[in-house]
């Protein structure tokens, strides 16, 4: 009776018994001899599954029945990944089974130790666990954060001796006591535990191994413009100068501390929507909102003063090139986990004003925002690192050559930087990009919005205010007293705020008002009653209402006053006193940055300043001018009286001459 065919046995899976489901082999890769042998084997196996007789198969292919059954058994085996070998098992000289030491084999060479180490670990599973735990850092088997192989080998040998293994037994009877075999085994552990082994090479490698290239988020298609944007900040690689007048009126040129550029980029077409520059040592929530505001509002080009610098015609900003993108807003913004991104104002304005969803992503994984990270690399290589005042990519960068001295010698100013950045980003939007099939970002954006009609959402008309982006909301209690005659007022950040209307609203004393605060300009606050109805603008008392200043500057001044480092009278402008104090200190770059920041804020003028707000500021300014005149007249009168008294005393007590 003939033997049954292998594929007729019980327990075989469909992928084992059906050659049509087997993995294929690229036959052209095999050299000539191996290719001929593989074709013979393949034809023989296929004839076997087609129920051809064994004699016919041997006559046609030259494969004997005994060898044929061996080949079929190889084909229906599973590999380490659980996939049937299929035609891969027919490749000549291919190992399909893990090597195992055969102690009883007659052909075994006793001088060779191949397979001894694996057999030793199978006999001593506790030593195997020790090696794996030490290498992968599991179970706190060692206090070393990353243990080297030579130290693992020492623990391995110590464990062998503790188990009573003598010097005549493996592995202690070898020249290196199993060190080379341990190296090979540890390499296998690393290959089989890729994510855990990557942790040995730092947090960056660990996060990449665990997060990058997985899940469906890497396959999302961002087709619509403004569907998803990415935000990030980059410290500018260079020193720049600024011209400052001393308290005595003498001009001097000083270098700024390195500062930040913040950018928002559209993922779908790689166009830069907007940017801002922060002079702070660490950028804050207000800097984030400056960038968001600049990305949404229609962009205006700067007036260039650098000879030869110009905007390229194909470039520009989306809100500048396309009228339908003025005040356009995005749906999702991807940020990292910086503290400034979690600021209350940022969360409120992104959600309630712009109407987008913040996506913070995994911690310490910047590759999730690879588009903007790659852009910053381009910006640094094409702009900052080409300037003579560059700090390069690090202290050892050969391009770093006395950047501070070069900045002072060549007078590369902060104003120059602003012009260079604006031109560079504008031209970037008009430069072909490899990530979008060598189209320019603006070309692709034009195709999406004009040819395909994929228009983004736009900000509502009533929300199109420059002030709203920098606005936060607080509650303050109205204070005052009819008994003492103290007029109603509210206090915010150490300064009293009043208005004529509030003065005549004594019924609001001890009641809370809702205040809308523009953190870029604290001269006025907009007040609302508890029921939500508008009450009007309140103006800062004293000289606080004269010079525009930010919340950050107000807090810095209050801190210096509390520490008794500065003081100011009713007639002094606190902002001027603050800048004079910074100049009187040693000229540290940090102080120069703060002075420049104060000047930049004071130069800003809102385009949508409310008429009522303007009126309140003009009234305060007129009142201060009147007080200045009265004070000047009083001083002159005191001087005249002083001279009169002096002359009278001189006449009265004049010594007579004899």
UniProtKB/TrEMBL annotation:
Coiled coil: 603-656
InterPro entries according to UniProt: RNaseH-like_sf, RNaseH_sf
SUPFAM superfamilies per UniProt: Ribonuclease H-like (SSF53098)
Keywords, alphabetical: Coiled coil
Region (Disordered): 1-20
Keyword Coiled coil included in the entry's annotation: yes
Record's protein name: Integrase catalytic domain-containing protein
Organism expressing this protein natively: Paenibacillus illinoisensis
């Amino acid at each position: 009776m003939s033997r049954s065919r292998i594929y007729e046995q019980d327990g075989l899976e469909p992928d084992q018994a059906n050659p049509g489901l087997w993995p294929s082999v690229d036959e052209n890769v095999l050299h000539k001899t191996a290719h001929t042998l593989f074709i013979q084997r393949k034809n023989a196996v296929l004839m076997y599954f087609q129920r051809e007789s064994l004699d016919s198969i041997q006559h046609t292919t030259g494969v004997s029945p005994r060898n044929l059954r061996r080949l079929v058994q190889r084909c229906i085996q599973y590999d380490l990944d659980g996939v049937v070998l299929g035609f891969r098992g027919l490749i000549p000289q291919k190992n399909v089974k893990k090597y195992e030491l055969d102690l009883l084999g007659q052909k075994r060479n006793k001088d060779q130790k191949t397979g001894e180490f694996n057999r030793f670990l199978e006999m001593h599973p506790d030593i195997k666990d020790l090696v794996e735990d030490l290498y992968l850092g599991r179970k706190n088997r060692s206090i070393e954060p990353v243990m080297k192989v030579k130290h693992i080998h020492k623990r391995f040998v110590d464990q062998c001796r503790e188990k009573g293994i003598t010097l005549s037994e493996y592995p202690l009877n070898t020249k290196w006591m199993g060190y080379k075999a341990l190296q090979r085994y540890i390499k296998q552990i690393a290959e089989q535990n890729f994510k855990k082994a990557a942790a040995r090479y730092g947090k960056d490698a660990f996060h990449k191994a665990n997060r990058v290239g997985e899940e469906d988020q890497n396959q999302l298609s961002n087709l619509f413009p403004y569907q998803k944007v990415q935000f990030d900040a980059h410290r500018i690689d260079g020193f720049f100068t600024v011209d400052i007048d001393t308290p005595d009126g003498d001009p001097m040129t000083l270098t700024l501390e390195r500062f930040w550029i913040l950018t928002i980029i559209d993922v779908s077409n790689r166009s830069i929507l907007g940017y801002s520059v922060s002079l702070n040592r660490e950028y804050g929530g207000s800097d984030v909102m400056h960038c968001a505001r600049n990305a949404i509002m229609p962009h205006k080009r700067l007036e260039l003063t650098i000879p030869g610098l110009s905007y390229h015609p194909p470039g520009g900003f989306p809100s500048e090139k396309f009228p339908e993108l003025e005040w356009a807003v995005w749906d999702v913004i991807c940020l990292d986990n910086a503290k400034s991104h979690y600021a209350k104002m940022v969360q409120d304005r992104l959600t309630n004003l712009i109407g987008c969803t913040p996506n913070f992503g995994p911690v310490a994984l910047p590759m999730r925002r690879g588009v903007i990270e790659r852009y910053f690399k381009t910006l640094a290589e094409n702009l900052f690192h080409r300037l003579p005042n560059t700090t390069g990519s690090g202290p050892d960068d050969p391009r770093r050559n006395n950047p501070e001295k070069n900045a002072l010698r060549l007078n590369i100013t902060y104003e120059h930087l602003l012009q260079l950045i604006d031109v560079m980003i504008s031209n970037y939007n008009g430069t072909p990009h490899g990530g979008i099939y060598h189209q320019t970002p603006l070309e692709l954006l034009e195709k999406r919005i004009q040819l395909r009609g994929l228009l983004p959402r736009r900000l509502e008309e009533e929300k199109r205010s420059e002030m709203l982006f920098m606005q936060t909301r607080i509650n303050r209690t109205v204070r005052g007293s009819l008994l003492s005659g103290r007029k109603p007022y509210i206090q915010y950040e150490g300064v009293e705020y009043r208005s004529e209307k509030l003065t005549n609203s004594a019924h609001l004393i001890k009641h809370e008002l809702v205040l809308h605060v523009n953190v870029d300009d604290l001269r006025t606050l907009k007040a609302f009653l508890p029921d939500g109805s508008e009450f009007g603008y309140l103006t800062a008392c004293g000289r606080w209402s004269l010079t525009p200043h930010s919340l950050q500057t107000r807090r810095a001044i209050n801190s210096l006053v509390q520490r008794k480092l500065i003081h100011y009278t009713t007639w002094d402008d606190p902002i001027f006193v603050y800048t004079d104090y910074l100049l009187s200190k040693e000229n540290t770059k940090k102080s120069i940055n703060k002075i420049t920041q104060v000047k930049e804020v004071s130069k800003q003028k809102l385009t949508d300043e409310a008429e009522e707000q303007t009126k309140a500021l003009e009234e305060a300014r007129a009142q201060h001018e009147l007080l200045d005149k009265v004070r000047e007249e009083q001083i002159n009168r005191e001087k005249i009286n002083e001279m009169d008294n002096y002359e009278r005393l001189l006449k009265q007590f004049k010594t007579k001459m004899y």
